[in-house]
Design brief:
Layout lengths: L1 E5 L4 H12 L3 E6 L2 H9 L3 E4 L7 H9 L4 E4 L17 H11 L4 E5 L6 H7 L3 H16 L4 E7 L1 E3 L6 E6 L8 E3 H13 L4 E11 H4 L3
Parallel strand pairs: 1-2, 1-4, 2-3, 4-5, 5-6, 6-10, 7-9
Antiparallel strand pairs: 8-10
Helix pairs in contact: 1-7, 3-4, 4-6
Length: 215
């Protein structure tokens, strides 16, 4: 699969690109800086440099999506590191629109509902707004005429991957639920390759990832 990834410069996005490569896929990383593009090439990831200061971002995205099999929003709402930032009011909507225009049916959004303690402290009074932004981005994706999947992981960690998860349709992680970024990346690759759709919770568990999303 040729998979375009927004958030490829994040800890999760980088692991997702590695997982795709390990499975014989071609990750295309949307990046904002030339230095990021160079790092992507060194890691065998095909970079696509976006100019978010221009007025033709939709045209750029359509070029990036040409020939793609899927798009992954691995930056939560699309407003975190390596995202479209303030360039658009709704990165999720912008990506979905470009995917639909290009005939790219598969769309996966990683929706992190549970920031860690340090992030919660940093957000302070903005925590409620942060969580509302996550819910709004999810709703945008759910309203699209695409083969979409929203993956809700527990709090992401840098623990070694286990190769197993606990997945539940329409589930919402609870405080204390965790998932390693490596296992989350493999879960995204699995829902892509198996054509899984709908809303899924994924947290640390004991079911092999390749079997975890079968109802």
């Amino acid at each position: 699969m040729r998979v375009v990834v927004l958030g490829v410069t994040t800890g999760l996005g980088g692991r997702l690109a590695s997982s795709l490569l390990a499975g014989g896929g071609t990750p295309v990383g949307l990046v904002l800086r030339d230095s990021d593009a160079e790092r992507m090439r060194a890691a065998r990831i095909e970079p696509f440099r976006l100019d978010t200061d221009g007025s033709d971002l939709d045209v750029q995205l359509k070029r990036a999506f040409r020939g793609a099999d899927a798009v992954v929003l691995a930056a939560g709402t699309g407003t975190g590191p390596g995202s479209l930032g303030a360039a658009v009011s709704s990165p999720a909507a912008q990506l979905c629109a470009a995917a639909e225009d290009c005939g790219v049916r598969r769309f996966v959004m990683v929706s992190a509902h549970l920031p860690g303690a340090r992030d919660r402290a940093a957000l302070g009074d903005q925590l409620d707004a942060y969580l509302a932004e996550k819910r709004a981005a999810e709703q945008v994706v759910r309203e699209q005429d695409l083969d979409w999947c929203v993956l809700r992981p527990g709090m992401l960690t840098d623990d070694p991957p286990l190769g197993t998860v606990r997945a539940r349709p329409d589930g919402v992680p609870a405080v204390g639920d965790e998932l390693s970024r490596g296992d989350c990346a493999d879960a995204v690759r699995t829902v892509l390759t198996q054509g899984i759709t709908g809303v899924w919770q994924a947290t640390t568990g004991t079911t092999p990832i390749e079997h975890a999303f079968r109802v």
